[in-house]
Design goal:
single chain; alpha+beta; Arc Repressor Mutant, subunit A; 3-stranded antiparallel sheet; two-stranded antiparallel ribbon; 5 helices; 57% helix
């Protein structure tokens, strides 16, 4: 079943109580899953700078046109990108640029984890 172009997520239940997980939570999880592939993250960050056609994206990322098209279709189905046709080319752009805030936040979490591990490693060496 589809919710806003995204397949229905599995039902989460706890044996002792009724689940508080709503369909909204499930759809959010599906959007996050859509962004969980490095090729899609590359595409989203590339689209932050400019609208791009598949042929230009294939050169930027180094994957085949069919692979890039499949990833773009996943992003489009999730509502992250939209298309517009100009002459013979289809150009992709971000439907909602706030997705970049999510990726920025993920980068900050990563940097924080790296700093914490470096600090821990230094502490261990000093002992």
């Amino acid at each position: 079943m589809l919710y806003f172009g995204i397949r229905k997520a599995g039902v989460l239940k706890n044996k002792n109580m009724q689940s508080k997980i709503t369909n909204f939570h499930k759809v959010q999880a599906e959007i996050i899953k859509t962004l969980s592939h490095p090729v899609r993250i590359f595409i989203v960050t590339a689209l932050a700078k400019e609208d791009i056609c598949v042929c230009d994206l294939t050169q930027k990322i180094g994957y085949s046109m069919s692979t890039v098209s499949k990833h773009l279709n996943v992003l489009k189905t999730a509502g992250i990108v939209e298309t517009k046709k100009l002459k013979n080319n289809v150009y992709y752009h971000l439907k909602c640029k706030c997705v970049l805030n999510f990726l920025d936040c993920a980068g900050k979490v990563l940097n924080s984890c790296i700093k914490q591990k470096v600090k821990l490693a230094k502490t261990r060496r000093e002992k």
